[in-house]
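MOLECULE: protein
FOLLOWS: sequence and fold
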Amino acid sequence: MAGTNGIIILEVFKATELWVVDFTYDGRPRRWLKALPAGSDARARMEAVVEDLYGSRARVLAVRRATTDEETQYIRGDLPKNLYCPTGRGPRSSVK
């Protein structure tokens, strides 16, 4: 059964394209890797997401396809962690 799940995940991932999104938030550089549906307008989508999340505090600088190495690191989970949250965990909060 595990093999079947792996095939499904691979099929879903291959229906997407991996994009590197460079932006600033409060003047500080940030980078996201985002998997978006193949053929979508990645820049327009990410500008809308950043605007929705951060408003005028953030600005998209560049959106480009991930390199083969970046894609491999993304799939393996080998990308550098956020310096402010090296575990990748969300904040502890009692708010649900």
The longest strand covers residues 16-25.
